[in-house]
Amino acid sequence: TASVNATAGQVQRELASHTTEISKNMQSPRLPSAAAHRADHVHEQTAQQQASAMLGAIKGQGMTWLKNIKDRTTAMAQTVQSTYGGRGPDVSFVTSRLVIAPLAEGIPEALASQAEDAMRLSILEQARGQFAIYNLSQRRLRCDYSNRSSETPMPPLGSGITPTLNMLMSVCRNMALFLRQKATNFVVITGPEAQCVLMASVMLLYSGVVEKPLSAIELVCEKRNIPILPPSYHRQLDILRTIVSTDRENLRAMVHNRRVLLDSILISPTPTFNRSRTGCRPIVEIYSAGNKLWTTGKDYEELQSFELPESSKVDLNLGHVPVADDVQVSVLFLARINLLVFLFALFAPTWMDLRMSDLILSAVSL
After folding, report:
1. Pick from 298, 362, 289, 293: which is nearest to 334 by CA?
2. Structural domain ending residue among the three candidates 220, 255, 290
3. Cys bridge to 89: 69, 122, 144, 158, which one at CB 3.0-4.6 A?
4. What's the chain's average pLDDT?
5. Could you tell me how far CA 86 lies from the centroid of its own chain?
6. Could you list the residue range(s) of the whole structural domain that residue 320 is in?
7. CB within 8 A of 362, min separation 6: which ones?
């Protein structure tokens, strides 16, 4: 009996111990400590700061993009303002029937149509009658001129190529034909300013309004400030003055339609425009009627070198190059890689496609 009682007591003690352990395990979990709260708060603040930095970067990029758009818009507005200023389109009436309306070459393409339309409206407001417009620019006209527009692009001023005399005479013939149709008709010349001034001066000489090239330029100067014209433009005006002021018999003796052969080009003394200032390797280009016929332009090392004192002159053998119409010989040199510098040009007419009936100018009144 005693053994049974001892065993029963032992079992009861083990059950009580096991029950106590289960009760401990089933108690509610312990609440986090204050340190854990602080760690979670710091982590939350860090996440918020990172998100704010990211949003700030996105906002900054967006503001920069908007600022770039604003700057470009302001620059475009300044371009238009500098082109026209506060006086509107640049339109000058040299005479009641001869108008110069240059269009700036640097105007943005998106605003070219608006600028041209403003020019057209300004001309219509200042004059009555129909007009024919002659565009001397490389950029074509955009507005509708009722089939009274003529695209006659001239070589850019910086190209070193001069408009041919036959081209200038052809435009003058066309202008004179339109002016003779009706007394209220007038002509408008547009394009780069230097070309507009040249064409207006040519027309003044052609129509007999003035007798000398300088008088033609001065007449244009009375209406507007004109740019400095290159020597080749003055040369063309001098030749045209000779044509319109010479009687028919002498003009027939001067004008011919035979080709001329160029054998060589001689330049003396030898120019010294290389780096060491001891000679040169000239690049020569020959144009006939505005078309390039011959050039020495090739790899720089293959160009013929002329050095002092061995070469006292530059003698280039052309090999009988046939030329006609207006002949231009341009001499250039390589200042540095990919930079050609225009040195000088020789210009002379060899023959002209000229009809004597074109010189009956008394019916043209400007």
Report:
1. 298
2. 255
3. 122
4. 78
5. 24
6. 260-349
7. 208
Nearest CA among 245, 240, 219 for reference residue 172:
240
- CA–CA distance, 316 with 260 (Å, rounded to integer): 17
- How far apart are alpha carbons 241 and 215 in whole angstroms? 11
Which residue in 233, 166, 176 sits closest to 208, CA to CA? Answer: 176
- What is the percent of the chain with per-residue pLDDT over 90, rounded to a whole number? 26
Tokens of 191: 């394009």
> What is the Cα–Cα distance from 278 to 276, expressed in whole angstroms?
5
* Model pLDDT for residues 251-275, shown as the tens digit of each residue: 777 777 778 888 888 888 998 888 8
One DSSP character per residue, 244-285 reads: HHS-HHHHHHH-----EEEEEEEESSPP--STTSSEE--EEE
Name the 3-class secondary structure at 198.
helix
pTM comes to 0.70
Query: What are the residue ranges of helices labelled H in the chain?
Result: 2-25, 34-84, 109-126, 165-181, 193-206, 213-223, 231-245, 248-254
Do residue 124 and residue 160 come from a single domain?
Answer: yes
DSSP state of 13: H
